[in-house]
Specification:
This protein is of the alpha+beta class. The protein has helices at residues 18-25, 102-107, 129-138, 189-197, 207-210, 212-219; strands at 62-65, 70-72, 86-91, 96-101, 112-113, 119-122, 125-128, 142-145, 158-161, 165-170, 173-178, 184-187, 201-204, 223-226, 236-237.
Length: 240
């Protein structure tokens, strides 16, 4: 499968986001041939940027595949080579997908405790389940019972880089890419520094310094708003 040199466009000359590629690969298109498949203008995938999220889920919180998320057996890998049986979770309403081992997808068919999963791999990213699954909840791929309560915040929020957000250097420029959607943003040197700084530690970023750029990084699923660290601490470590 040919990939576009620009990270957000996975299939060359389609203009489609990664989640659209995942959705296409998960469906039987035999009835469309030889007539072909019609391409529609892609909808920009976004997540809610107003609420705060935990840096990690409580170990006793249970999660499962969300009602609006379909599970498929991919006919070809989207992001990661097939190393054993793989599965795709796709939510067309939120414009997100997750490629993972079939055994992990099996676990999400019923309620499972976040603390029982240990380290998990999704879209080629391996991290502690409590940390990584927050990204899947934000994108509507999983649901939790009860829904994780927004942490209290009486001051400006702090921000963590989502584990599924990747910095991709290209000659003369750098992109930050949300691997759950395929959305990518060009990042100048200041944004690259910021994303590197908050990869493992929650960082308070004054709005006056970031402005609209900060809001875009949040709604694009690149940054996760979390409760600010205690005033006596410079940051809160995210479990990786």
């Amino acid at each position: 499968m040919r990939t576009d040199p620009l990270p957000p466009l996975f299939c060359r000359n389609t203009g489609g986001y990664l989640w659209q590629v995942a959705d296409f690969l998960s469906r039987d298109h035999s009835a469309s041939y030889p007539r072909g498949v019609q391409l529609a203008r892609p909808r920009r995938p976004e997540v809610d940027g107003a609420r705060l999220w935990p840096a990690a889920l409580p170990p006793d919180l249970v999660v499962r595949r969300a009602e609006g998320t379909a599970r498929h057996r991919p006919v070809a890998p989207v992001l990661t080579p097939a190393d054993g049986p793989r599965a795709l979770l796709v939510n067309r309403d939120t414009g997100a997908f997750a490629e993972m081992p079939a055994a992990l997808a099996d676990a999400f068919e019923d309620w499972v405790r976040a603390g029982d999963l240990g380290r998990v791999e999704v879209c080629g990213v391996t991290a502690e389940a409590g940390h990584l699954l927050v990204a899947l909840l934000r994108h509507g791929l999983l649901t939790a019972d009860p829904a994780p309560a927004p942490p209290p915040a009486h001051r400006a929020p702090a921000y963590l880089r989502e584990p599924t957000a990747q910095l991709v250097p290209r000659p003369g420029e750098t992109f930050c890419v949300n691997r759950l959607t395929g959305r990518a943003l060009r990042a100048n040197a200041e944004v690259v520094r910021l994303l590197q700084e908050c990869e493992r530690t929650a960082v308070v970023i004054p709005d006056v310094e970031a402005g609209a750029c900060l809001a875009t990084l949040v709604t694009a699923g690149i940054l996760r708003p979390v409760a600010p660290p205690p005033a006596s601490s410079a940051g809160a470590a995210a479990e990786r």
